[in-house]
Amino acid sequence: MKLAVIGTGYVGLVTGACLADVGNTVTCIDVDEAKIRRLQDGIIPIYEPGLEDVVKTNFAAGRLKFTTQLSGAIAENEILMIAVGTPPNEDGSADLKHVLSVARAVGDSMTERKLVITKSTVPVGTGDKVKAAIQERLSARGMNIQFSIASNPEFLKEGAAVNDFMRPDRIVVGCMDEYARKKIEQLYAPFILNRHPVIFMDIRSAELTKYAANAMLATKISFMNEVARVAEAVGADIKSVRDGIGSDPRIGYHFTYPGVGYGGSCFPKDVKALKQTSHELGLDLAIVDAVERVNMSQRAFFVKKIESHFGGTNGIKGRKFAVWGLSFKPETDDIREAPALDVISRLLQAGAQVAAFDPIARDNVREHFGAAHALQICNDQYEPLAQADALLLLTEWKLFRSPDFDRVKSLLKKPVIFDGRNQYSLEQMRDLGFKYFSIGRPAV
Question: The pTM is what?
Answer without folding.
Answer: 0.92
